[in-house]
Amino acid sequence: MKIAFVSGLYPPAIMGGAEIVLQTIVEGVREEGHEVVVLTTKEGGDHVREVVNGVRVIRVPIQNIYWHGLRDRPGPLKRAVWHSVDSLNVRMVSIAKDILMQERPDTINVHKIDGWSAGILGVGQSLGIPTVQVLHSWDFMCPNANMFRKGRMCASRCLSCRILRIPHRSISNNADAVVGISQFMLDQHVSEGYFERTKHRVVIHNARDLPSAKNVPPRSPTRGLPKKTILAFVGTINQGKGIELLMNEFLSIGNPDAELWIAGKGQSQYEATLKSRYASPQIKFLGYVEQAELFPHIDVLIVPTLFHENFATVVLEAFAFGVPVVGSRRGGTPEMIRDGVNGKLFEPNNEGELATILSDLLQNRDELESLGREAKASADEYSDVRRWVNEYIRLNQDLAAIHES
To answer: What Pfam family is a match for this entry (predicted)?
Structure first.
């Protein structure tokens, strides 16, 4: 069968885990013998048709005031205009329809709608092609895709979200199937009235195959760097990810035998502010680091996200290397971390709770090692990429068969 994948960004344009997850699915579907094509956006110029790792990719210049794949964030006025256009971008929808009419896939899989707008879901219906919507984040409910504003998680949708997302609830019903990467994400959308008439609602947890993690030895008291216990944050550096909460709580511990490594990138100005505000020989900013170069040297991963993150792929990566995870009780994270078994869970609104957990782990090496062993054992559930890819293939085959009948 032939599947068309549509998303705002596609590697090498990467803004988060969604792009990496999408690429893994696309390449996996191709390896299973199916035809694939990716439709994504680019900055200005002409259409670009290229092949990335054997996959045909069509990059369409975005019809908006800027391309959202840029690393540095534009000012608030520009962002407001961009999101207004992206609420229902008829020009991008028209371009997508023309391309998909030529490609004639058996099914369309939409991942991130940013850049295309929610209107992309109507294309399949107009062309008679079954469409799957994969929920990576809160795109349908929040223009920022994270339900997070002014340093805190939104208890309810703000006025701008409600206005800019007026069409999304009804448009969501154009999807023939919706996939939640976490049960939490799917349940939240359905409870808010999205995908009410979508017949097929399924949960497919992400999977990651990390060959570099397969030969990592079991954790031992000497695995970390001598005399130091290494705590780490891995991912995009921004306020919603809880980076400031983590650094505050870490410094409050005052343990000279521990270091906090920050592996990832963020907006340059925000990074500079953090480096100045939290200057300490115990906190090291590493920039982007490959998993194989980082995880064998760390003892605990902290995922302190303040908003309801869908399914933090970095947790799976840590498990693969036998690294226990301390994560916030937000979004899909508690679906992966079994508190006290393969990691620890904390409530980010409770000041000092994270510091207490980290302090206890730093003083109890035996518990740390036990959590690490269970983390490694947990990796099996999330490392079978072929099984994961075939779940998507079967869903698409079922939809195509129903459409043909």
So the answer is: Glyco_trans_4_4
